[in-house]
Amino acid sequence: MTKKLIVLTAATALLSGSALAQESAVTGAAGGAVTGAIVGGPVGAAVGGVAGAIAGIAIDPPPPRVTTYVSEVPLPAERVVIEEKVVVGATLPPTVVVQPIPEDPRYAYAFVNEQRLIIEPSSRTVIQVVN
């Protein structure tokens, strides 16, 4: 009974959230549901779908002009190295300097562990690793 209630609650949240979400949230929900199903069965699918939808909304790829700006800005003389692996969705520690992008203040950039990163400035979340 409890499992059915959890699945029903999660499915309701997923459906109501997806109706208002962007395409990336739907993609995130599908990916999260598949991952959750593999790990935790039906309950994991429902919970993973909700988590994936939230992640899909939060991490949209930046516009091409932002990516171009970050790929062309000169590397700083001082290198920043952190122990944590830097991946999309990770939050940078407060010790990492994050620079705003002049053309689009919704984004910032940083150079960490020899990688060029595009950052969401208010949360310090890595949106993209620029190759």
TrEMBL record:
Residues 1-21 form the signal peptide. Keywords: Signal. Pfam families: DUF1236. This is DUF1236 domain-containing protein. The lineage of its organism: Bacteria, Pseudomonadati, Pseudomonadota, Alphaproteobacteria, Hyphomicrobiales.
